[in-house]
């Protein structure tokens, strides 16, 4: 099966890595969703672990036919674009998600899931996802580092994020030009309350629009120079966007929601 560059396809072929992925968490008798199963290498290993129900989402027509023939009735194939599919209606039980995400839409997929977490309900138990290493480094980075930014702040709002391992290009076919990284996400039991995560997305977008400049300009743009907010959250306007920790951005979002309510 020839990989399609337009769909960001790089099929995972290394058996040791595949076994490592499926051993991260017990999936026996669990509801499983795999994003972009490709030719079904990881899919086969997941089936050996005896899940209760197994869904896969695949956009590629040819791969849907291949998977259908290869696995018969052992899994439910959803022939859709993951960005246009609402996973939270898939099962009343929480889902474990596996995904060797297409590089070209990996951040879009993750952000879609995060921005749809508008209440206390998590439709997933955990996410086990593969990213381009550069993207993964941005997700797990802490403030005061060069990789810290919008993706770090969004991902760490409601989720615990743990790096499992880096994966070499040789583990895929076709071989990508970059390294990959496997991350494990699990819901936080306690997190900062925000009415609408899209407001957090907006605040971080405005602040990081000019990440090398002081935050005075974006602050004034949003809060009209309201010095009371600065005092309330102990904000130094001479700092740069990467100098503010997660909590500060969540507090800024809360103040913005108070302003527009």
Structure, briefly:
The chain is of the alpha/beta class and 261 residues long. The chain is built from ten helices and nine strands.
Descriptive account of the structure:
- With 261 residues, the chain is of the alpha/beta class.
- The chain has 2 domains: 5-187, Vaccinia Virus protein VP39 (Rossmann fold, 3-Layer(aba) Sandwich), CATH 3.40.50; 197-260, rRNA adenine dimethylase, C-terminal domain (Helicase, Ruva Protein, domain 3).
- The chain has 10 helices and 9 strands.
- The chain has a 7-stranded mixed β-sheet.
- Strand 2 (31-35), helix 2 (41-48) and strand 3 (53-57) form a beta-alpha-beta unit.
- The N and C termini lie far apart (53 Å).
